[in-house]
Design a protein that fits this description.
single chain, mainly alpha, 2 domains
Length: about 450
């Protein structure tokens, strides 16, 4: 339990924070200069739209952020109108919470969009407005979202998986170095003791794989669901795990022959060098994210290790397909013996299946958020939406994740409240306040 509740010590993403701060602060400064307080909704739209950026190819990012811009504008309009009547606000919140929670069946990006849209609905429902004002809010939200999309796609790209790609690429490069060194030894195997020099390289490759595993764990820990890029990087890691085992077995077989003074298979050294070049090409493709075509080598080897060469060739071919899927957003290869991918993307019908985790989670979010709104309304809290927003952000499909998020939220609220109190007491100038908020 204690290990499950531990908070990962990930490196802060300073550039992502600067992007989000820019998307929020620029509309606020423009609103202050132009004396247009309604631009606060543009700042809110820019900030939340930045948070919906999934990274990856430009079309994917623009599509995700554009979808959230439309959903956020609809939530802004609907929440402002529903909040005018308390008894209409409660069933409206239940229905909207159900819809936004159920769309997580489409993966991590959809789950993030749903949470952010529901957050916007809670905020505007807590500060209701008539139709004209709600339309202005929705328009300002869309304007801020378009500014964020322009900033994210055209000016300031976001690569949340870059550290993971670098770690996985380093592991492929380390195994490629091992294969290159083995090729040199296999090309002149007169001295059997030379095989001992490969042991440190094998240890280094194993350490690189462990680093890649840790990077994958940290990147996937805070996700609402699976992503295509995260899945392909995990597949590449697992392929390399198998490949390193087969390569180690191959090297041990070749070493045993050398120690018995038996001839090695013809062209064994050349085959190992082909393996090294293929692994290094995969590593470079992971880091560069270019469009150059990758080709799996054809290894020719005879006698006993031929099966191991064949397995390594097959694993490299799967890795090439996975890298290509990582570039294009495809599904990638199906591992040997694995079940086939289901035809078509999951739909909302899947979420209503018996014992559906998404359905139970959606009902939990809708019920608890509705109860929180009812209590906040009954207590006549001035900013009741903070109660429902907290519920939406804290509740997760699994208990451990919910408890961890609650601890993070409680600690962040206390620290943020103290900082906000100090700022309100000591900062009076609007421009200075804007710089501090940035």
């Amino acid at each position: 339990m204690r290990g499950s509740l531990a908070i990962e010590a990930a490196r802060p993403q300073w550039l992502a924070g600067l992007r989000a701060a820019t998307a929020m602060t620029v509309p606020l400064i423009v609103g202050w200069v132009a004396r247009r307080p309604e631009l606060i909704w543009a700042g809110l739209g820019g900030w939340l739209t930045m948070l919906s950026d999934p990274g990856g190819p430009y079309p994917t990012r623009a599509s995700a952020m554009g979808t959230f811009a439309l959903m956020g504008a609809a939530a802004t309009l609907a929440g402002g109108l529903a909040g005018l009547t308390p008894w209409a606000a409660i069933p409206a919140l239940f229905a909207f919470a159900m819809i936004c929670s159920l769309i997580r069946v489409h993966g991590d990006t959809a789950a993030t969009i749903g949470v952010l849209a529901l957050t916007m609905f809670c905020i505007t429902e807590g500060s209701p407005a008539h139709l004209a004002d709600s339309l202005v809010r929705a328009g300002m939200f869309v304007a801020g979202s378009l500014f964020a999309i322009l900033l994210a796609v055209g000016v300031w790209p976001f690569r949340p998986y870059h550290p993971v790609r670098a770690a996985v690429a380093a592991s492929w490069m380390a195994v490629g170095d091992l294969a290159a060194a083995a090729a040199k030894v296999a090309s002149s195997p007169a001295d059997a003791a030379e095989w001992e020099s490969l042991v440190p390289l094998r240890r280094r490759a194993r350490d690189a794989l462990e680093d890649a595993r840790e990077a994958l764990a940290v990147a996937r820990a805070g996700r609402h669901g699976e992503t295509g890029r995260g899945l392909q990087l995990l597949v590449l890691y697992e392929i390399l795990e198998l490949l390193l085992g087969d390569l180690a077995a191959l090297l041990e077989a070749l070493r045993a022959r050398a120690e018995r003074h038996e001839p090695l298979p013809p062209r064994a050294g050349e085959a190992l060098m082909e393996i090294s070049r293929a692994l290094e090409a995969i590593a470079e493709a992971l880091v560069d994210e270019g469009s150059d075509a990758l080709v799996a080598p054809r290894l020719e080897a005879s006698s006993d290790p031929a099966v191991l060469f064949s397995r390594i060739e097959s694993e490299i071919r799967q890795a090439v397909e996975s890298v290509q899927a990582l570039r294009s957003g495809g599904t990638g290869p199906s591992p040997s013996g694995a079940l086939a991918f289901p035809e078509g993307a999951p739909s909302l019908r899947d979420a209503f299946a018996k014992a559906s985790t998404e359905l139970r989670h959606a009902l939990r979010v809708a019920l608890v958020a509705t109860l929180a709104q009812f209590l906040a309304t009954a207590l006549r809290l001035e900013r009741s939406y903070w109660v429902t927003v907290t519920v939406v952000l804290v509740l997760q499909p699994h208990a451990i994740a919910t408890v961890r998020r609650a601890l993070q939220r409680a600690g962040g609220t206390v620290i943020g409240g103290l900082i906000a109190a100090l700022i309100a007491r000591h900062v009076r100038e609007p421009l200075v306040l804007g710089a501090v908020l940035f």
